[in-house]
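Hi C.,

You asked whether I'd gotten around to modeling the 560-residue construct. I have! Everything is below, sequence then structure, no commentary in between.
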Amino acid sequence: MSATHEPHLNNWWAQGDTPVHDDSRVAYFVDAHSTFLMMCRQFLMAHKYIYIAAWGMTPLMKLVRGTDQRAGPDGSPQQEALLAELRAEGLEEPEIDFWCTHELTVQAVLGYMVSKGVQVNVLIWSSSELFSHCDPQAAHEQLTQVGVTCMLDDSAYGLLHRPIESLHQKIAIVDGTHAFVGGIDMLIELSGDYDRWDTHLHHYSSPLRRNEEERTPHNWHDAHALIEGQAVGDVERNFRQRWNEVVGRHGWDSQLLVPEHPLPPAVESTSLVQVARTIPVYTYRFASEDGIQGIAQLYANALSHAHHFVYLENQYFWTHAFLGLDRPRLGTDSPDMERNLRELAAALQRGATVALVLPDHPNVGRAFTDAGLARLREEAPDAAAQGRIQAFCLAASAEIDGAERYRPIYVHAKVTIVDDIWSTVGSANLNNRGMRDDTEMNVATLDAELARGLRMLLWAEHLELMGEESLLTVSRHLGNQRQRQRVDERAAGLVQSLQETLGDPVVGLHVLIERAQDNLRRFKAKQPLVGHLLPYLTAEEAKQHGLHVHDEQGWVEVPQ
């Protein structure tokens, strides 16, 4: 164990399910443009197997779009630069030719790899039609058409299960050496809205995100992680356990069983890494009778160590379970979220600052998030009075038909950073479902450079301090991913620039506050936003500002 880890070996970690690794490394990616670009490249470099477990999937969705797929005519400088980048990444010439000559849909990429002799297994939640935003049966048919071994996982069904329990993990494993864990599904919702593919700049309207009705779906902000080293084995073990249990429960052919593979080689790393998961009771037999609450343990332990600054991005911030009505008093208590809130309040009482980024228009439960924020402020009134509790939302704007229009950016990221040394990214929301009642997976790291880099990358996006390409190269640099030397040197310079502006989280937070307040003034004056930040306003706060507000849908996109 490196001596640099010694000061931080307090109890940050979950116990009893997965080990803590010093032989693995993690790269964080913000939004699906960068995530799917890396994912597609890794899929095309597979030699043995690709395993995917998803909440939902749209096989006809393009993973790579625009100039990332073809930068220009053959022989043009732009296309030659793209080819050089793909070669530097490690793609072979047949895969590069496939990249440039085919639409890179999920179905096409996975089907191509099957044709190359790679075993591709996909496990999709068999979701109820009542609660689903996708069509798992159609996805199953489209994948099996190209030779993918696809199964629908019905493990959340049964009398002992909650009626809206979901299998919410979003993971992929390539050859046992690389694993993706995070919040992003390869999905466009059945309505044509909420295309998960989006860029750092979150353009209000983009030809790369048009749906069949020629409308641009709402923007989608999310995060994902790429793991290398022996922690990949923990992600693969989870997939193998889930897959094999479905096969066994249905009595299917034993040839469908996924075998155990050797662990990948250790990699040099400055990080401590742990993969953690939530497995509800009754869902899988491989879990104990109490289920697995590794992610809840991670959060409680990490927040108990917070002394200076906690930064959270999440879809929800609930202390009560949502039961179908947006009335917090009707929801049952969530003991895990109660503890998280108490730990946050204790950190605030120790002098820490807490900042949250939340969606103005969550799909459900906006009043539950409002109630969670109100509770936090009640538990730490001095911190609230001193401005040490800050909440933001995100939005995009554009001039359309002579008037400025605004749309909320859907915050789906599940990111937490504590004191710029500990960070986690995954699928678990800050509610009862993420902590206990749905099947989830997160990865957590103890690494100051990685945690601070992720925070600065997120803030640079929200403030729109850099262009799309710069943010992409910075994320690859921070994650020690291969890119051309000249590009990586430029990215290092950009990181240094961000460090000067945003390196101190408290100083950087004031930049965010000023931008959010300025954008609120711009919103009221019907002027363009600068960047994406706005203050998160509870329904009551929005009314105090004289804004039209819908209790469930928020205030950014309410018809004026």
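If it helps when you're writing up: Confidence is low (pLDDT under 50) at residues 1-8.

Thanks,
B.
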